[in-house]
Design goal:
alpha/beta, single chain, 9 strands, binds NADP nicotinamide-adenine-dinucleotide phosphate, 7-stranded parallel sheet
């Protein structure tokens, strides 16, 4: 509720995200929803994007009930125009873009031999192209925020995975998309870091979200066996990491963060 957190009260110390604007893709569930909530709790105005508008509306209501500001953008980021509109409408509404959390993703596992190629297309279109479209649209605004905003720094946080570091039999195309996210992020980091746009890569391990539920039942069974008895991370654990990254002082850039559940050995 507004006013229940003493740090929101007038006259208290400014929150680390105060005055900032952020776009979070894939904010209708899991890591994206938790990150939007966490960034809003830090004082950022948050544009929340995904395809399920009812979920986004519920999240916006939750953010506003905690004293934060949210704008809902029903967006399919695999459509370049929709990705560009998301960024432009955010800037039109709030005048600036300081942070992009490029989070929307899908993980469809299974053997390469005999695979359903439409699953590969979904992963490449979302995990790679969707992320690239958002990055492309956001970069001019992030560069401008890094030049002229009060903090003179801006952030792009790209969500990869342990699968972006460690290939596994049965994860080939998901591995390919997330390795791609890692390679792109490092190349872009080198391109823009001296202009004070920080590009960070977050690589979560097993986290309790809806991600696995999009797989075929036989694949879900294999995954359940692999992770049985393991205490998985919560979406909030990854949101904490993202919030930490974007609230560092201007001279500190967290380039990469690999985060596994303590029980996850590979
Ligand atoms: N959970 C894990 O164990 C884990 C581990 C490593 C990495 N990750 C990565 O973390 C990220 C978030 O996943 P999650 O675990 O939070 O899973 P999740 O709960 O399934 O969230 C995925 C989000 O992506 C959105 N999305 C899907 N297609 C979209 C599209 N075309 N346009 C816009 N948004 C779209 C979904 O919303 P709509 O369906 O409403 O569009 C949803 O909000 C992904 O990149 C994933 O690869 C997760």
């Amino acid at each position: 509720m507004p006013g229940t957190d003493p740090s929101h009260s007038p006259g208290s110390r400014p929150l680390p995200g105060q005055g900032r604007t952020a776009v979070v893709t894939g904010a209708s569930s899991g890591i994206g929803a938790a990150s939007a909530l966490s960034l809003a709790d830090q004082g950022a105005k948050v544009a929340i994007a995904a395809r399920r508008k009812d979920r986004l509306d519920a999240l916006a209501a939750q953010i506003e009930a905690r004293g934060g500001a949210a704008a809902v953008f029903e967006t399919d980021v695999t459509d370049q125009q929709q990705a560009a509109d998301l960024i432009e409408r955010t800037v039109a509404q709030w005048g600036r873009l300081d942070t992009l959390v490029n989070n929307a993703g899908v993980m469809l596992l299974g053997p390469v031999v005999g695979a359903d190629v439409t699953e590969w297309q979904r992963m490449v279109e979302l995990n790679v192209l969707g992320l690239l479209y958002c990055a492309h649209a956001a970069l001019p605004h992030l560069l401008s925020a890094a030049e002229s905003s009060p903090r003179r720094v801006a952030d792009m946080v790209n969500i990869s995975s342990v699968a972006g570091r460690v290939p596994r039999n049965g994860s080939g195309v998901y591995n390919a998309t997330k390795h791609g996210v890692g390679a792109f992020s490092e190349a872009l980091r080198q391109e823009v870091t001296k202009r004070h746009v920080r590009v960070s890569l977050v690589e979560p391990g097993a986290t309790d979200t809806e991600l696995a539920s999009h797989n075929r039942p036989e694949i879900q069974e294999v995954m359940q066996q692999r992770f049985s008895g393991m205490e998985r991370m919560r979406a909030e654990d990854i949101a904490d990491a993202i919030t930490y990254i974007v609230t560092r002082p201007r001279h500190v850039a967290v380039n990469e963060m690999l985060i596994r559940p303590t029980d996850q050995d590979a």
